[in-house]
């Protein structure tokens, strides 16, 4: 029997504590990894992570974006984990190394899902969709698709291995 009185259902826990801890931990980890302030400056890194976390929870709009985005990111991570587990069983090797194309596809799809989710969370999606349905918007969308196709072709050509066709 589930109770609605547990701390995980509390708005204070969900809307303030979890986003603060998440942003603090991510900022601290980034600062520790990058050594921007020098080696062994854990106190400075923690203080900056604390300030950024506190700033985040003091602005409802940015806090709400993180609170609404985390479930989507969690679902993406679970899907990727399941994919890697299945891939690991099929490959049956200790070191799982995905092909570059698969990594690029997963990354691209994840970025698209996150961008659409952010657009929906922030309320930009409906006006953007309405603009895309106008004649000017159709031209903009067509140009974006055209530029993306050219960029994809250029990346494909640059990453191709040189083949000796003279044989």
Outline the structure in words.
- This protein is mainly alpha-helical and 167 residues long.
- The chain has three domains: 51 residues, no CATH class; 56 residues; 37 residues.
- Helices cover 77% and strands 0% of the residues.
- The chain contains six helices and no strands.
- The N and C termini lie far apart (73 Å).
Key attributes of the depicted protein:
167 residues
Map the helices and strands.
Blueprint: H1 11-34, H2 42-58, H3 60-91, H4 100-122, H5 125-132, H6 135-159
Helix pairs in contact: 1-2, 1-3, 3-4
**What is the string of SSEs from the N terminus onward?**
HHHHHH
Strand element count: 0
Please tell me the total number of domains. Answer: 3
Uncertain ranges: none
Shape: extended
- Percentage of β-strand residues: under 5%
Relative helix content:
over 70%
Distance between the termini: 73 Å
Mean pLDDT: 84
How many helices?
Answer: 6
Instruction: Return the structural class.
Output: mainly alpha
Main beta-sheet annotation: none
Whole-angstrom Rg: 22 Å
């Amino acid at each position: 029997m589930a109770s609605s009185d547990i701390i995980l259902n509390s708005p204070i826990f969900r809307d303030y504590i979890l986003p603060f801890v998440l942003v603090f931990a991510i900022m601290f980890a980034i600062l520790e990894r990058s050594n921007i302030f020098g080696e062994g400056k854990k106190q400075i890194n923690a203080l900056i992570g604390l300030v950024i976390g506190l700033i985040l929870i003091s602005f409802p709009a940015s806090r709400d974006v993180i609170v609404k985005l985390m479930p989507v990111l969690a679902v993406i991570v679970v899907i990727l984990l399941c994919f890697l587990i299945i891939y690991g069983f099929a490959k049956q090797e200790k070191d799982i190394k995905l092909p570059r194309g698969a990594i690029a596809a997963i990354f691209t799809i994840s970025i698209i899902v996150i961008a659409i989710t952010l657009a929906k969370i922030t309320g930009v999606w409906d006006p953007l969709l309405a603009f895309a349905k106008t004649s000017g918007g159709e031209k903009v969308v067509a140009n974006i698709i055209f530029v993306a196709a050219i960029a994809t072709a250029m990346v494909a050509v640059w990453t191709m291995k040189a083949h000796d066709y003279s044989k």
